[in-house]
Amino acid sequence: MRIGSVHGSAFSIGGSGNTNTVHQGGTGADAPGAAELLEAVLTLREALVREAPRGADRSALDAELDGVAEQLEDTETIRPGLVTRLREALERWAPLVESVSAAAALGSLLGALGG
Fold first, then answer.
1. Dist CA 112 CA 109 (whole Å)
2. What is the mean pLDDT of each run of 10 residues along the chain (115 residues)?
3. What domain of life does the UniProt record list for this protein's source (predicted)?
4. Using CA atoms, how far apart are residues 26 and 95, in angstroms rounded to an integer?
């Protein structure tokens, strides 16, 4: 999975018969902040616990998401490189997250943030 910049359009992430479409806001939309990104990361983390099989890949992704969540807690700004780190994690573990709808929401935020 590759998540690029999405502006004024929609994209879908899916596999195994599941498709999750996310519509990215139109022009002039403010970029999401650290709190919104933290919420999306935690939502994905919770969804993985419910929906993804346990294994080395999920443990590695869980650790990555936990590390990102720690960096986003109690801050109003998103550290440089964090968006790229999250995008790369989603790409690396695409087979694991492709059917998890929370990944589509996080992907949408990452698209809005660029990086």
1. 5
2. 50 48 48 90 93 90 95 91 92 87 84 76
3. Bacteria
4. 29
Return the H-helix or E-strand segment holding 115.
none
**Residue 22 domain flag:** yes
- The total of structural domains in the chain comes to 1
The pLDDT value recorded for residue 29 is 53
Helix, strand or coil for residue 24? coil
CA angle 74, 80, 82 (to 5 degrees): 70
94: buried, middle or exposed (CB in 10 Å: 19+, 13-18, 0-12)?
A: middle
Residue ranges making up the domain that contains 107: 10-113
Q: Which residue do the tokens 């999405």 mark?
A: 6
Distance CA 36, CA 84 (A): 16
CB 40 within 8 A of CB 105: yes
> Which residue shows structure tokens 């990102």?
68
Paired with 15 in beta bridges are 18
